[in-house]
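Retro notes
What went well: the complex prediction finally ran end to end.
Inputs used:
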Amino acid sequence: MINFTHFPVIAVMGLFLCAFLVEIFGAKNKYIRNTIALVAAFGAFALIAALIKPVFVDGNVISYWMGNWTPVGGYAIGIGYEIDALNLFFALLVVTTVLLSGIYSVKYMERDHHLGHYYTLYLMLSGSVLGLVLTGDIFNMFVMIEIMTFASVALTAFRNNKLGALEGAFKYLIIGSVGSSLTLSGIALLYAQCHTLNMSQLSAALATGLSPTTILAFALMFAGFGVKSYIVPFHAPAADAYMAAPTSVSMLFSGMVNKAGVYGMIRLTYVIFRAMDLSSVQLLLVTLGTVTMFIGVTMALAQHNFKRLLAFHSISQIGYVITAIGLGTALGLSSGIFHAMNHTLFKGLLFLTAGAVLYATGTCDLDRLGGLSKRMPKTTICFLIGAFSISGLPPFNGFASKWMIYQSTFAKATETGNFGYAFATIVALVVSVMTLASFIKVTQAVFFGQLPENLKEVREVPLLMRIPMWIMSALCILSGVFYNFVAKYLLTPATNAAFNVTNYIDKMMGEGYAAANGITETAIGFSPLDLWNPVLWLILFAIVLISVCIVILTGEKERGRTLVKTDADPEDGKYATFFGGEASTHSHVGGSDLFWGFKHDFKGYFKFIQGMHSGVVNDYALWVVVATALITVFMFIFVR
Amino acid sequence: MITVNYIVSVFLIVLGLYTVCTKKNLIKIVLGLGIIDYGVNLLIVSIGWNDGGTAPIFTVTDLLNGVSSKFFVDPVPQALTLTSIVIGACVTAMALSLVIMVYRKYKTLNADEVRRLRG
Amino acid sequence: MFKKVIAKSMAKSPWIYHVNTGSCNGCDIELVAVLTPRYDAERFGFKLAGTPRHADIVVVSGPITSQSKERLIRTLEQVPEPKCVVSIGSCPRSCNVFKGSYSVEGPLENFTHVDVSIAGCTPKPEAIIEGLYKAAEILAEKREAMNK
Amino acid sequence: MEIITTIFTNAFYVLVFPGLLFVAIVGLLLAGIDRKVLARMQKRVGPPLIQPFYDFFKLMGKETIIPHAANRRVFLAAPVVGFVSLVVMMLFIPIFGFSPLSTNADLIILLYLLTIPAVALIVGGSASGSPYAGIGISREMVTMMAYELPLVIVLLTVARKVGGSTLCFSLSEISLFQQAEGSLITNWSLIPAAIAMLLVIPAEVGTQPFDVAEAETEICEGPLVEYSGAPLAIFKLNTAIKMFIMTALFTVLFFGGIDTGFIALNALVLVAICAVLTVICMTLIHAICARLKIEHLFKFYWTVVTVLAAISLILVWLGL
């Protein structure tokens, strides 16, 4: 019998330990360096994956007290780790991202210097996010947030010979620190009221109702986690940092750093304050989420840089997640975390393809790329899978989660009779189409169209960079096709865990503690609806595809059609692009030329929103302050 | 009076936020962050204060006599403050090093001119 | 059976791509007149295609000028097999009044095989329809020849 | 034995009726009706009714040219993927009660399946490497953004109307509801939505006033510029099938509930209604309108059509 209780803390500590071992032993030798980093990443992955059985399948909650400081007299002073299905769900996302990013970094970062520092920071970032997700102590969570901010900032500025990197890192640091200060003040106020830092005890202590102090704490922490998950008024530095960081790090940012913010938000609203049955909090989250997804996607439509475009899409997709978890229903939460998972997968994949393009060509400027599908066919296929997933085309995973989000928002609208939620559904659907539009723009500008002269010699990226992309692509397809499996074994336990606060408190503080403090909620036993059957659909698709292919491809002789010529002479005018009879010249329709009609109709809006993203750090800080003030006022007026 | 502490800490936080939002000099922005940190630290330390309490230190006799009846200040916020101070120092160091690098590349400390990433 | 259906369809649905190689626009107007309600070439399945990739019949009007020669040849190359070339009017046949000009390269026969040549300056729409109809039949024959 | 029968029936559903063969024939027939009626409206004789079949077989027999700038695999796969998704879509649409693949999420699945042929056209055009196609796909995408918003609102309206407080995305349930309560078109609060849907159909299919993406006179057929032979034939077939699918969807949403008792007769009634709808919403508008500019198209859909659809949604929401 293996004792699983030690696994989470070993995973976190192992990552931190290896972070320093890399610097000590691997500063000179790249093999030692890579080995240590990959072993640490894989070790964390294995340790967390080993917890699937006890937590997801058996339904246990694992608790661990640092130094065995168990609660005495109903007061938890020591730092505790508590792993229920919700934590573990996010922890799995974190370790998967870390492992794949680690494999990708080996080749991607090989041209950089001082890689010892890179791996130290990389492992520290991973360890801190894993610790943030697994911890049951709110001050420990804050410390992990701070370590996460440092590591992120340092990694953003890692290629400090580039102008954007320093600037992005500086903005990220300023806004991030303001956000963590907000969180810390919230924690301090909570401590003043409840005299505890343990999340389960806080939850029990707050059961008696909210006082003005705790409402202020709630507002401040809400804003603090908002900054960490980059919902709209707080989103500006994220776009800069994602763009400026090395791509393997951008993938970490969008795959786990902002998922950590989302996790904090769920923990805060569902478990600590148990505020999700308040319609005002629901309305606040759904409004923020809807605005986030719309502004994110419209900003993405206006971008000229591949990575910056992806960064704005990250913001937009987080809007979906926040909208869904803001509904406060079981279906809403499960669709929200499902979309968070899918976002990790497909956005990670897209960042990796962006990194591959950057590695191969040296630029991410949409106006200077084109026609790369001829030179990098494998990357192109991965990109298309990612793009179709994020746009929610069936049978990819984005479709499954988005469809759940529409279902849950509209169900919420019909339940409450509030038309605003139906509006959220419509916005979500339209944003989905706009997402597709902006990825069509990337497809046309980077992978299809005509190959510029200076990119004729581009080669496909090395195998070690393609492996993570293939894994991500496979996960994108599998989690879309076997959606029922994911929903049954991952989403349902996680959703039930978030709602089953009693179990969470009792496991940590001792049996009967929750009931003694007046929390009598029981498990809701949620199970997702059997919405559609993608496997059947896929089989049908295959039947039709095969029959069509038989007719088209094998019927060639019967119809006497001349064969498709593949090895035609490049100089042959017959196979040249049609230019109205002119000789073929390089004439590429780049990214910025697309969607003219759309932008023309909304030129006022685009001018305004692009002007708002002024790039001045003071403006961004002002947004944070104003938004925090508004959230605080809203909470004081409406939260009871 | 403990109320003064709260007022001053809120004042410091607001002052820091004001600095971050309005001052265009990058170093002043970093200083603003520091002021916010001090305000939050003061807030946390004040929370643990108990009027008339002693330091939370037990002598051997106290322990031998069983549970102490002594009234002491809450030690946890002080531990939190120490952590927070360390983190604040790290933030400042990190930010200042970034400012130095930015100055080398951009030849300016004006926030209005450090804005290549926008739109 | 497939072959027969395709060969029959080939004659029933010829799509036209029109190239003006320096015409005076007279023939072009007559070609458009063919599609008007009065003559209605669409009843035979004729349709103007937007690109040579879709075309079956390339209609050339005007003498071949030095500017248009290369472009014409390139366009003709880009039409998928089987294809027909039809010339309208006297200019592609003989260069008409433009013969001898420094910028005229000569009649269309010099550069490509012409399947149907419709005479007249300008030919009447009825004549154009008949010529195109003949071209469509030639198209079907070419298609059947490809089967062997 | 049982399994073999099941496989055989399913294969019949997918390949013959109401799948591949049925949609292809009816789609091409509708396209023929469209062309014939258009010709009669313009006092022409017009092509024979089976002209689209001729076009299709002719294109199948032509040479397929793949340009150098094109990505060969994507270029060839795009039309097939679009075609397959259209065939699968037909399996979700009940022919007055008969639908082999109906689930409780039909409408959303259809909404997404409808985008796949358009995406296939866009990706295929993009893969051909022509700048004309580049302009074409940008217009196609903007068109798609334009009609998607009213379409979403129309579908939500119907779902709300049929499902009441628990909304109903299942097309067979929508059919059953109409059998019990009469066709939805007779409900006055849904008439604006029906008009909006009628206006969405031509943009979805890409017929005359809304065919900015394939404007053959200005950008040489847009995304199709480099296509020839069999892939082009399949794209043309896709357009024809889309015509049928969209009108059939309209029929199910607003004229559902007609049931003669025989599947074959039901299918005939469906085709007849589809033909009438095709004439109304495509041929008629085609005959009287000139092509719009792309920004005008976008403005039209996001103002006039969206407002019509939204009026219906609000009326239905208020319980009228």
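What we learned: The helical segments of chain C are 2-12, 26-34, 66-77, 90-94, 125-147.
What to try next: split runs per interface for comparison.
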